[in-house]
Amino acid sequence: MAGDLRKVSDDIKFVEEFELDKSEELNGLILNELYLPKELLLEILSNLRAQDVMKCSLVCKTWFNLTRSTALWKSIYFKQEQRKKVPNLPWYVFYCHLSSDYFRNVIKNGNGELLFKHWEILRNQGDQFGVEKVPTGSDPLPADIPEFHGQTSCFVTSYEYCIKYQKFDVSSKPLLSYIIQKYRPILYASEWYTGRFDCSCIYELSLACLPPCEKSDPKKLLKHKRYQKSVSGTAGLDHTHWEKKELFYETYPDDLATIAFIHQGKDQQFWKGRYGSKMAGGVLKFVFESIQPSPDDLSTEEL
């Protein structure tokens, strides 16, 4: 079960709305001796970034209450995401989505443009991992794929297994943890891979979802089959175009603490050098569209 939302402190204080006495009813609604209706203020606030809206909550009690309005955050979501239908969710779920990468992509340096920054190497055999500024012996990265962010580089493996991972610490993000426990959104991972025209290869993408007691030892990640899900493929020779592998994870520990995005590969002909699988454009995120309102969510009108 999710904990008490009022105890969550993740960039923002979750407290109940302030009660205003009669002397405070117009507080924050008179600007330069002009009265601004709450409806007009909500419309103005709906054009701001999520982070700026929360800064406005510091102005006064009235503005604080307005920034906790579900109608406001549904309007912001509608304008920024251009969705025809807005889900019936509490304001803090929209805030989490709009102010973070949790529902977009938390993988950093997915193409190796920063070499191996943000990655931890578990196994580096053969001639080890490498980064190619432009893929060698295969098709170039497609230019129209958003996950590549305009980059042309990729990771490449060798004649023995090369394995590395990137870890996302859920336990250090209280608001996200609360939303995960309450709504159980689908966890999604994907990556693009290919091989060389002259050498066949193996590629594998895995996702390990670990509870607190299992998160501290990265060397055991590959052994946690009960927490792990993977997809694999072969490439090379007649398969040098880039292909996308995807994982959808609907069951993970109730007390999810850490997610490890793991990829590995090697060539199948034991050639010296880096003739193994290539990978780029990794994505790890929670699927916002999979969140369904819970029975205790307050009823709000659709936009």
Automatic annotation (TrEMBL):
Gene3D superfamilies: 1.20.1280.50, Galactose-binding domain-like. Signal peptide: none annotated. PROSITE patterns: FBA (PS51114), FBOX (PS50181). GO terms for biological process: ERAD pathway; glycoprotein catabolic process; SCF-dependent proteasomal ubiquitin-dependent protein catabolic process. InterPro entries: F-box-assoc_dom (IPR007397), F-box-like_dom_sf (IPR036047), F-box_dom (IPR001810), F-box_only (IPR039752), Galactose-bd-like_sf (IPR008979). GO terms for molecular function: ubiquitin protein ligase activity. Pfam families: F-box-like (PF12937), FBA (PF04300). GO terms for cellular component: cytoplasm; SCF ubiquitin ligase complex. PANTHER family: F-BOX DOMAIN-CONTAINING PROTEIN, F-BOX ONLY PROTEIN 6-LIKE PROTEIN. This is Uncharacterized protein. It comes from Dendroctonus ponderosae. The lineage of its organism: Eukaryota, Metazoa, Ecdysozoa, Arthropoda, Hexapoda.
